[in-house]
Amino acid sequence: MLPLRGVAHDHVRLVGRGLVARVPRWSQVGLDAAANLAHQAAAFRRAEASGRTPRLHRVIAPADGLPMGALLVDEVVGRPPRLPGDMAAIAVALAALHHLPLPPMAARPPLVSPPDPVAAALAQVERQAAAFDAAPLEPRTRALLAAELAALRPSLPDAPVPVALVGSDVHPGNFLIDTAGRAWFTDLEKAQYGHPAIDLAHASLHTSTRWDPQVDAELSPAEVAAFLAAWEAAVPLDLADAVRPWLTPLRRLTWLRTLTWMARWAVEGEALSAGMPAALARHMRRYVEDVFRPEVVERVRADFRTGC
């Protein structure tokens, strides 16, 4: 058994085989056991051509003693990222994912592919924003977030929406760095077809770089800009050009999407984190307190004004 770092999966190393069994405990996207396995298997298979995700070897169907089944995938031998030094490697891994050939709409299931991924993410933020009213937030924080929500829709550009295979849950803690310095994205449970700028935001926002206690760092605006430049250098020019107008607006959207979920966690943390290791739960409580401090909210907002 590998150390437990979250609540959705157990991981078991098959010693001497170069494989890891990825054993779901439950589905974070609400799927039953068979649908969850099919979704994750499709994600691993489609991402394999990027060369930056583990290769899927076998799907083990649900059975007695293994109610959610399992996936056998390559073991990635590596360490957690060290920020900011490994952000360029993460950018290259995301670029490899984002410029994979896009299948026609009919061939995309079982992965989610909303007709307009920006509209879908916006609707999610506006739906979840009610959590701000229930969470124990300081009045100054509440006022700042209300201003950001009001600015969200007007900030979205009137520009074509590029779509690619995206990892979605691409916080740095979901990457491993191998001995050659390459980054590998290891958690494809939430992979879908969406907007690359949401991935770029999710990988580099304060709410993501502080999420995993083994990473727990904060990037400066200059370091975020260097990360984005590394991604642009690794993708085709037409994709970079299509994504550029969306970088700052979708950074705001992704930040608010994360904060609305964290506001819910502030109210329902015990129920949402059943089974989480005690040390990780303590980190989460400190993390939630930090991301909602007025001075932290102000600092993140300043990034939007500088375009990072």
What report would you give on this structure?
The chain has 308 residues and is α+β, with helices and mostly antiparallel strands. It has two domains: 9-74; 87-306, Alpha-Beta Complex (Aminoglycoside 3'-phosphotransferase, Chain: A, domain 2). It has twelve helices and eight strands. The protein has a four-stranded antiparallel beta sheet with strand order 1-2-4-3, covered by helices on one side. Helix 2 runs antiparallel to helix 6, helix 5 crosses helix 10 (247-272) and helix 5 runs parallel beside helix 12 (294-306). The relative contact order is 0.15.
Structural class: alpha+beta
Looking at the structure, the CATH topology of the largest domain is Aminoglycoside 3'-phosphotransferase, Chain: A, domain 2
Q: Treating each run of at least 4 consecutive H or I residues as one helix, how many helices?
A: 12
Strand order of the largest sheet: 1-2-4-3
Which stretches are low in confidence, meaning pLDDT under 50 for 5 or more residues running?
none
Q: Quick one: CATH superfamily of the largest domain? A: Aminoglycoside phosphotransferase (APH), C-terminal lobe
Instruction: Report the portion of residues in β strands.
Output: 5-15%
What percent of the residues sit in helical stretches (DSSP H or I)? 40-55%
Radius of gyration: 19 Å
Tag the structure with descriptive keywords:
alpha+beta; Aminoglycoside 3'-phosphotransferase, Chain: A, domain 2; 2 domains; four-stranded antiparallel sheet; globular
